[in-house]
UniProtKB/TrEMBL annotation:
PANTHER family: F-BOX PROTEIN, OS05G0482100 PROTEIN. InterPro entries: At1g67623-like (IPR040338), At2g35280_TPR_dom (IPR057136). Pfam families: TPR_27. This is F-box protein. Residues 72-176 form the At2g35280-like TPR domain.
Length: 242
């Protein structure tokens, strides 16, 4: 890859900007953003250009803090030393995905879940991890405690505003395939969030017509409580809760 980029701002002919002229911090930020999408892309960007490689090496902890672990299974059934070393380094760098995964495994551990897992999920959610926000938000929504449910709505609302409900749900759905179900930590809350469930013409009418397939289909004009009642149904199904 040529170590230069083209800037067209204010000039239709284009202006070459060399990558070497950019500060290392900026390059590291680019690498960290790429890494947050995919571990394989991190590998590719490192071998594509020596400036990116150097920026990665100089800011390795920061990059590991952000790197996506989508290519690594939730549970290392057949761990190899290389993968374990990498994951250990990610953990030492306070990788947010590791925190989320630990929280998930702990909370839904079988046969006895650990409430400490909820704390890890909360920290990961507060640090902006989307799937952690989804799981933590849904766990709060399923709580019997009124205040917790209100907090759950706040978490889910911010995720909804960034149009990340469906993508987060899909990733969580994938991860739950590797978890044992019914350890008693998640229990169905029989009281719907929408107090007018029987008469509310919002979400109940809409969901009968079509399934929500992506975040663009999500209509924020409709009753918000019904929206989360609908999401809770899906969440319970993920964990075989009837
Ligand atoms: Zn409603």
């Amino acid at each position: 890859m040529a170590s230069r980029i083209i800037s067209k701002r204010g000039n239709n002919k284009g202006r070459h900007v060399s990558i070497q002229s950019l500060p290392t911090d900026l390059l590291a930020e680019v690498v960290a953003t790429v890494a947050s999408q995919s571990f394989l892309d991190l590998h590719n960007v490192k071998i594509s250009c020596k400036d990116f490689l150097q920026a990665t090496n100089h800011n390795y902890n920061y990059v590991l803090q952000k790197v996506s672990l989508d290519n690594f299974p939730l549970i290392q059934w057949f761990p190899n030393e290389k993968a374990l070393t990498f994951l250990r380094r990610c953990e030492e760098s306070e990788n947010i995905e590791i925190l989320f995964r630990e929280g998930l495994r702990e909370y839904f551990n079988y046969p006895n879940g650990n409430i400490g897992g909820l704390e890890r999920l909360q920290i990961a959610a507060q640090r902006g991890h989307k799937e952690a926000m989804y799981v933590y938000g849904m766990l709060l929504l399923s709580s019997e405690n009124h205040e917790s449910r209100k907090q759950g709505i706040e978490h889910m609302r911010s995720l909804r505003m960034s149009k990340c409900i469906m993508s987060s749900r899909k990733k969580v759905q994938h991860l739950t395939k590797f978890l044992w179900k019914n350890n008693g930590m998640l229990v169905r809350n029989q009281i719907p969030l929408c107090k007018f469930k029987e008469t509310c013409k919002g979400w109940r009418v809409k969901k009968g017509r079509w399934l929500l397939l992506d975040d663009e289909d999500d209509d924020i004009q409709l009753c918000e409580d019904c929206r989360w009642d609908h999401e809770l149904e899906f969440f319970y199904q993920l964990f075989n809760i009837r």
